[in-house]
Each structure stands twice: as structure tokens, then as C-alpha cells.
Amino acid sequence: MQRPHPLPRPAGLTGLALALTLALGSAGAQAQSLLELYEAAKNYDATVLAARAQARSAEFRAAQSDALLRPSVTATGRGDMTNRERSIGVDGTDNNLNARADARYPLFNRGNAATLQQARKTLESAQADLSAAEQDLMVRLSQAYFDVLASQDALATTRASKTAITEQLASARRNFEVGTATITDTREAQARFDLVSAQEIAAENDLRTKSIALDQLVGRAGVTPSPLPPAARLPATEPADPEAWVGFAVSAHPSVRKAALGVDIARLESAKAGAAELPTVDAVGAYSANKALGSRPASPGTVSAATLGVQLNWTLYNGGSTQNRMKETAELEIKSRNDLEAARRTVSQSTRQAYFGVQSGLAQVRALEAAEASSRLALEATQVGYRVGVRVNLDVLNAQTQLFQTRRDLAKARYDVLMGGLRLRLASGQLRVEDLVGVNALLAR
Asked: H helices of 178-235, where?
């Protein structure tokens, strides 16, 4: 099966180079790179921190299960004092000190062996959850990052459009004053100016909202993302076969891995239920010492004893509890297998959708690039026509609006393609830090 290629990254980028990149990024006060913000977010995001703590706790839980296959020793101690008062004879006290140590070592216990394997599977499941949380953070951070860039572009194009409309409004007013144009041109330009002013206010608020969301995600204030240069070449999707992505997703996606581990855990639970019908065998040993003290010890001196043996425990009948437990775990095992199949179907569908979404986004970028060039030429032709009197002011305003809207849509489409690539890797369970390195390499330094 062909493994999906990561997004392009600078040649020879090693761990040291990555660290230098982060250091240089943090030193610059102008903009923060995507990598730098990810390093901050993964140590701040509550979801990732919770998944990380859960994975660490699973390690200790697995270590606890190791004790089931190791010997156990318990110690007890006791002291007694008896005061004897006799009607005939001599009064006195009988004191006894007793100490005992018991040891047990399991020789045969199928249930404990299954419990130990379950703990290992549970640890792997927690690690799969941590991997999913980290991949999800990469996408959430990237989306917030590009949302800010898209809002900045939208605000910039709105202000550029406002500047162009302002110039057109001034031109219409001059032409009206000298009698070469009607009041209609001025009113049309004024209406368009008022509209773009309202759009500017909305764009400013949208940028403010998106910036707050990015700041909250990384735990910093005033984050400024590095822009994506217009000349940046968007990466192609490799391999260019959706079934290759699906094939990898159904075997490596964290949710599929977790569901597969759930099947293993359910199977082991069935084994534990069946083990209740089997005997358990333990090696047992004990050592005890008793010392009599007092004025009238019952048995003066110290008595010690040591025993060593093998103990067999076998439940012959428990009211049908074991048989019903076995039936219960068998049904739960069937459920876990269906959960695994559902997980595979879900990731297959989401991976195909993500793949075709990237392809559609690339096609849309190419179409918008052509539309931007055509709109620019159309505006230039309309301005010439307006100056020679074959076009009216409204034609120029419409051409300007079309050009700036196309530029705004093109910028957002480019961000959507990059996000689509990351979401495709998330859908297939293959999103890694190296993919962020590739995206970060496209951003302006």
C-alpha cells in the first residue's frame, strides 16, 4: 500500500533546524509561524493536556496489572496481655507477642493473564486517543491561523475597494460639477461607497473575532500569523488515488486502531469470563513466631513455625453467574466488532470526501486565478471606455467590485486548499508535525 506523502518541506530540515526555525520565529515581533504557535498550543490546549494525562495514567494502570503475576507478601503482628486473678494460687500476667508473614505466588490463573493483556491494550487505546487529540489540534490551530489570514485579506480587499470607489465618487462629482455627467453617477457612487463602508466595519469585526479565537487557542495575546505569499505554489495531492488514502485510513486511523483494540479487549474479557470455570493454583508460604512474656507465661519461650505448600481454588457452582457472564461478554464482543466496522466505514467516507474536496479546491483556485486576470483586464477596459464616454460610472463600479471580490475569494480558496490537505491527512489518520512544516515553508518569512 502506498503511503501518503507529507506536504513539501525545506530540504535537509532536521530537528536542530526545526528548533532554530522556532527560535527565529519567536524572536521576530512582526509575525508568528504556524510551527511556533503549534508548539505553544500543544502545551496550552486543555483537550490535548487531558489526553496526555489520560495516556500517562494508563501507563501506571498497566504497571499495576503486572502485580497479578508477581508474588505478594503480607505481614501481621499482634500483642496480647492477660491479667489473671485467682481465688486460690498466685496472681500474675500472661503476655504474648505474635508475628506472621504470608506469601503467595500465582502458578496458574488464566483470568490474571487476560487482565494483564487488557491493561496493555487499554494503554494502546489511550495512546491512540492522544494521537487523535494532537492531530485534531493541528487542524484546529491551522484553521484558526488561516481564518485570521482570510479575514485580513477580506479587510484589505474591502479597503482597497473603498479607496477605488472613493476615487470614482470624486470623479463623478467633478464631472457633475462641470456638466459632463448626471447626478445619477454621483448617487450611484455614493451608494456604493456607503455599502463598502458598512462592509469594512463588518470585516474589521470579523478579523477581531478571528484573532481572539487564535489567541485563545495558543494562550497568547496579539498573535499575528505569517501571510501566504501570492506566488506560493500549492502542493499537489500525492498519491493521486483516493483508494490509496482510504486503504491507509482503514488500517492506521486512530479511531480505527482504538476500535480494533476494543475488539481485543472484549475478546480478553470473554476469556476472563471463561477462566472463572477453571481452577487457580498458587504457591503459598507462611512464617509465624510467638513469644510469651509476663510474670506467669503460659508457655515460656519463643515458638516459631514455617509452612510451604500449593493451594488449589476451584469454584464448582456459583448459581449460574459464570455462564451468564460468558454470554454477556460474547454479546459485547459482537458489539465491539460492529463498532470496528462502523469506524472503518466512517473513516472511508470522510477520507474520500476530504480527497475530492482538495481536488475541487485546487480546481477552484485555478478558475479564480483565471477569473482574477479576466476581471482585471475587464476593469481596465471599462475604465478606458468610461474615459472615452462609451461606459457609464456604474459599469466601472461593477467592474471594480467584481475584481476585488474575486481577489478575496481567490485568497480564501488558497487557504482552503491548504486546510483541505491537512484535513485529508487527518481523515486518513496520517497528520504529523512534518505536514505543518510543509505548510509553514509556504508562508512568508
From this structure: 183-218
Strands ordered across the beta sheet of 301-313: 72-84, 92-108, 280-293, 301-313
Sheet strands (E) in 194-348: 280-293, 301-313
pLDDT digits (tens, 9 = 90+) for 169-200: 898 888 888 877 788 888 988 998 999 999 99
Q: How many Cα atoms are found within 13 Å in the side-chain-facing hemisphere of 179? A: 0
Give me the pLDDT at residue 90, please. 55
Please report the DSSP string for 158-191 in residue order: HHHHHHHHHHHHHHHHHHHHTTSS-HHHHHHHHH
Beta pairing, strands 301-313 & 92-108: unpaired
**Per residue in 51-84, pLDDT tens?**
999 999 999 989 998 888 889 999 999 887 777 6
Domains, the chain, ranges and CATH? 15-70+109-277+321-442 (1.20.1600.10), 71-107+280-313 (2.20.200)
The answer to whether 420 touches 361, Cβ cutoff 8 Å, is yes
CB 415 within 8 A of CB 421: no
